[in-house]
Structure formats: structure tokens, C-alpha cells
Specification:
mainly alpha, about 45 residues, membrane, transmembrane, transmembrane helix
């Protein structure tokens, strides 16, 4: 019943890439918010 190993590996890689992309995007958003707040405080 288990799918071929190559398919498993491909799916895993895709999920991993998507997860990394989402995490990176979230970090960028947080950084942007943090820096804009810092800049406002400095003004």
C-alpha cells in the first residue's frame, strides 16, 4: 500500500521547501514590523 520511495522523497522535499518558505516569509514580516516600530521610536 505504501507509495514508491521516490514519490515519498519528492513529496517530503516539497513540503519541506514550502515550510521553509513560509517560515522565512513570517520572519521577514516580523523583522519589518520590528524595524518600523524602532524607526518610529527614534524619530
Amino acid at each position: 500500500m505504501a507509495p514508491p520511495h521516490s514519490l515519498n522523497k519528492k513529496t517530503f522535499s516539497l513540503l519541506y521547501i514550502i515550510r521553509v518558505f513560509i517560515c522565512t516569509a513570517a520572519l521577514w514580516e516580523a523583522n519589518e514590523l520590528f524595524f518600523t516600530q524602532k524607526n518610529r521610536e527614534l524619530e
